[in-house]
Every structure is written in C-alpha cells, then in structure tokens.
Design a protein that fits this description.
The chain has 450 residues and is mainly alpha-helical. Helix content is 67%, strand content 6%. The strands form 2 sheets. A 3-stranded mixed sheet has the order 1-2-3. Strands 4-5-6 form a 3-stranded mixed sheet.
C-alpha cells in the first residue's frame, strides 16, 4: 500500500489531477482514505480545481464524503451544497453530530440546518439548544459533553462500577455535583481506583478546582486550559451548574485556529477562502487592502514632496531613501509579528506591556546603532560625503527605534479598539515607519547638507 504522509500530499494532488483513468483514480483515493486524516482529505479535495472536483467526489464512499464535508472551509462547503442536488445534501447531513452542526450552521442555508436538527436524538437536541444560549465567541457555544459526573452522595463502589463502563478521552478526574447539578469538586481516577469501598467519595474530592465560565471568551479560555497542566477543565454556567468541559486537545486546536486566522488576516484575506474561489471574490477580498495601502502610500509621498527642493539639490538623498524606509519597515514588522502572536496567545497583558516595550526599544536601539554605523560607512565609501553619511546614520537609528516602539503600541492599541491587529497593523506600521524615516532623513538632509 502507498503511504501518503502530509509532505507527500502535493504529489497525490498532482496524480489525481493528471490521472486520466477512473481505475487509477479509485486506487489513489482508496490509499488516501486509508492513510490521510479527515482534515487532510478535505485539504486534498479543496486543492482539486472545481471543474474536476465532482469527478473525484463521485468516487468516494458515503462515510468519506461526510468526513470531507464537515471539515471543508466555508467557501468550499457553500460551493459543494450549491453544486449537489438537495437530496444528496440531505444525505450528507443525516449523520451530523452536535459539534459539526454548530460549525456548519454559520455556513449552510437554513433549510439544511432545520433538516440536520431533526436528525439529532433527544440528548443531542438538548446539547444543541444549550449551545444556542451563548454567542459564537463564547465558550458556552462550543461545549464538550464527553465527561463523567456523579452525585456527591454516590458510594466508592458505585463510582468504580461507573469507571468499568469506560472513560472518555482526556479524562483524569470525575466531577462531583449536587442534586441541582452544581459543581462540588473532582476526584482523581487514580485516587478512586486505590480507595477502599468504605471511604467517602466526598472526602476524596478536591474542592479547590479551577473552572471556566460559559460566558468566557473562547480563545482566552483555551489559553487557561493550556496553562493549567490538566487534561481538561470543567465549564459552569452562571449558577455554577456543570454543563461541559474543554479538553487540552480542543484548547490547542483553538489556539492554532486563532494563530492561523491572524496569519491569514495579515494579508487582508479570509481564512475560509476557497483555493479556487472566483476571481471576482478573491480580487475583492484583496483589493480592499490594496486600496488602503495606496492611501497610506500617497500620504508618505506627500511628506516626501515637502522636501522636493532638498532632493533636487542633493540627488543622493533620493538614491538612499529606499534604504531608510526598508530598514524601518523590516524592523517594525519583526516586532509587530512578535506582539500580534503574543496577543493571539494571550501572552501580552497590561501588566507586561511596559516591560515588553522597554525590551523592544533596547532591541531597536542595539540593531539601530549597529546597522546605522554599517550603512553610514557604506554611504561614505559610496559618495565620499561625511555629512551625508552622518545624516543617514542618525536617520536609520531613529527610524529603527521608532519602528520598535510602533511595533508594540500599534497592535496593542488596535486590539484595545477591537480591531484585528493582524489585519490592519502592518499597513499602519508601514505608514508610520515610512513617514518617520523620510521626515527624519530628508529633514536632517535639509539642515546638514544645504
């Protein structure tokens, strides 16, 4: 059997696209189903051009079609539902569980949501209705229901019998609740297994436990779980009733989702844009930020125009301006990337912001001093002009310090204003470093060279 680890995925995609026989396609798809995760199967499907996708889709069995469907990006999911007949769409939705439906309801038409809800059993319907009490950015909307809870009055023997039925994944404790369902504490599975039957379950319990509130921010809650050192953390509602849990695996998935979203947004893109989305849609998504960038570029050009007379008299300034702008832009983007990532991971707070600012300013000053001297020396060797060399040395130093300062403050301020710093931070940063660099360089040129 051919094995396709993720680094071999491009090879498989090429073979599927170029293959001209159904038999060979069937063989490739069978191997892929046996050796790729459901997420990678969805990536494979999305990498096929749209005019060839349905040929591949029809060769897949029902289970694989379902697995691919529930893992598709929003654009690809919409395209598939639009392409298939309604009867085929309903068939895809027959085995959808609560977690999958909560993901899909943001994307699929209402008639499909209504159909999928009817396929849920009574317990899943209650879970779905509970999730609807919270907005999509809250932890309560994405509850994990696979956990063990027992009455505080249960005996040790009864609890041990419960363990024999099997433990959900990532279970290291069972939760104790009152008759009203309020969280009382937790008992470690290992302690329970070693306990004598005459022992009290309540006495074994740890009552000093950390829980999450259903109203907590989804991504902030994920960071709490990751740093807790536990395999899962219980989730309670406003009345302290245990309603779910968040596992360490789900927390890491949320962290990665947040990081991926920030990385994609940095380019002004949509994280769920289909690889083969329409030209019009892709152009619209990207064109908006090109337009914003154009406005900021003209702003920087206007500042350059203020020193037109200086540039006319000292042509070397025009030659060296790109060096000043480029160095500031790179230094600022390095700091910006670190801070945006820290914000996404919940590592940047009010308490450590000033310490981060001081650290980045020192980095900017050190790099500024080093590279301004290097650039100043190169400029002197090139133009044999000491004052020009001094001008660019000072300008580079000041611009790198300003870039470090901006790289910290811009994403922090944007985050406070509820604006995604990954989406707009780089545009604003480039404008700031360009303007500071040009004004400093050309201003010093006017003072020292004329």
């Amino acid at each position: 059997m051919i094995e396709y680890p993720i680094d071999k995925l491009p090879e498989l995609i090429n073979e599927l696209i170029l293959c001209d026989t159904t038999t060979r396609k069937n063989k490739l798809l069978l191997d892929a189903q046996q050796n790729l995760s459901t997420e990678h199967l969805s990536l494979l499907f999305e990498a096929i051009p749209k005019d060839l996708r349905m040929d591949i889709w029809e060769l897949l069995d029902d289970d694989t079609q379902h697995e691919i469907f529930v893992n598709l990006g929003d654009d690809s999911c919409r395209w598939l539902l639009h392409t298939l007949e309604d009867e085929a769409c309903f068939k895809l939705l027959e085995e959808v569980n609560v977690a999958e439906l909560l993901e899909l309801e943001e994307v699929i038409p209402q008639r499909f949501i209504d159909y999928a809800k009817k396929q849920l059993d009574e317990a899943q319907t209650k879970q779905y209705e509970l999730a609807q009490q919270y907005s999509q950015d809250k932890l309560g909307h994405w509850l994990g229901f696979d956990f063990l809870k027992v009455s505080e009055k249960l005996t040790i023997a009864g609890a041990k019998k419960l363990l024999l039925k099997g433990l959900p994944q990532f279970t290291e404790v069972i939760y104790l609740v009152t008759r009203q369902g309020r969280l009382m504490g937790e008992v470690a599975v290992n302690d329970l297994l070693k306990a004598q039957e005459q022992d009290s379950l309540l006495a074994l319990a740890n009552h000093d436990i950390v829980s999450l509130a259903a109203e907590d921010d989804l991504y902030e809650a994920a960071e709490v779980v990751i740093h807790s050192g536990n395999m899962a953390t219980p989730i309670v509602n406003a009345d302290n009733r245990l309603i779910g849990r968040l596992t360490i695996a789900a927390a890491y998935e949320l962290r990665q989702e947040n990081i991926d979203s920030a990385a994609v947004n940095a380019g002004g893109l949509s994280k769920d844009e289909d690889l083969f989305a329409s030209v019009r849609k892709s152009a619209k998504n990207r064109g908006i930020w090109l337009g914003i960038n154009l406005v900021t570029a003209f702003l920087a050009s206007w500042f350059i125009g203020l020193f037109g007379a200086t540039i006319e008299q000292v042509v070397a300034l025009a030659v060296l301006m790109p060096v000043v702008a480029s160095m500031g832009g790179i230094a600022g983007s390095q700091t910006l990337t670190v801070i945006v990532r820290g914000l996404a991971l919940g590592q940047v707070t009010d308490a450590n912001r000033n310490a981060l600012l001081k650290k980045e300013l020192r980095v900017g000053a050190l790099n500024g001093l080093l590279w301004s001297l290097v650039i100043g020396a190169i400029t002197y060797l090139w133009f044999n002009d000491g004052m020009l060399s001094l001008t660019i040395t000072v300008a580079i130093l000041l611009n790198l310090v300003a870039a470090s300062l901006s790289g910290v403050w811009i994403p922090w301020v944007l985050d406070r204003l509820k604006i995604d710093p990954a989406l707009s931070g780089s545009v604003i940063l480039t404008t700031v470093t360009d303007i500071v660099g040009f004004v400093t360089f050309l201003g010093l040129g006017s003072l020292l060279l004329l």
